[in-house]
Amino acid sequence: LSRFFATRFEKIREMEIDSMALRSLQDFVRAHFSDAFPVNLKKLSLKTVPMHREEPGFVLSELPLTLRHLELRNIFPNWDRIAPLSMLSSLEVVHRQNGSAASSLTPQQMWDVLSSLRSLRKLVLKGCLPNHPGEHDRVQMGSLHTLHLEGPLPSCTVALRMMGIPTSAQIELTCHIAPSHGPGDMDAVMRLIKAHAGQLTKEGEPF
Q: For 37-47, how does the pLDDT look when each residue is reduced to its tens digit (9 = 90+)?
């Protein structure tokens, strides 16, 4: 393994690391990528399963500027120390724990991260949506082509309200409805979906 990294490190374009085959994904990354990931890396996928998820604080501070696709599944990074992600065209963040959603993202961190992704074309957020908007301004995502959100119904509504999305973007919603959610919760998300289709919200503002 060491010889492989020594001779082929800079040539790596895509990398998928699944902790099912590792004792600790965090330890593996620290051992082999303590200084930086491959300088020509374009796609990075880090995965684990809910029963084997990494502890919060996973550090991704040395991502290369060539990176265009980042996928994190049950990886809970330190979002305040993550490398700048403005170069990404695709971001997927999926959080699960024993069949239920979990998140290490505060609302402020979520909107700070998304506001820096000026070139993002695909965004997938599952199990990591905040349940309130915080104090951040609405995030404009003018380059977005594909959006997939999954989470509790109120969290999906908050995310849609906080994102300025082109009407040409394709949106896929997987909203979890609980007994505590009333007709008003469903009406709110339906108004936003209709607004995205070119209509107006109840307040008369474009989506």
A: 777 789 989 88
Mapping DSSP to helix (H, G, I), strand (E, B) and coil, where does residue 90 land?
strand
Convert the pLDDT of each residue in 147-169 to its tens digit.
Answer: 999 988 888 888 988 999 888 89
Check the CA dihedral 113-76-89-85 and report its sign: positive
Q: Which residues, including other chains, have CB under 8 Å from residue 52's CB and lie 6 or more apart? A: 19, 20, 74
In which order are the strands placed within the sheet that holds 69-73? 14-18, 43-47, 69-73, 90-94, 122-126, 146-152, 170-176
- With both helix axes pointing from N to C terminus, report the angle between 183-196 and 153-162 in degrees, rounded to the nearest 10: 30
CA-to-CA distance for 179 and 174, rounded, in angstroms? 16
Whether 81 and 61 have beta carbons less than 8 Å apart is answered as yes
Residue indicated by tokens 């082999």: 32
Backbone φ, ψ for residue 48 (5° rounding): -150, 175
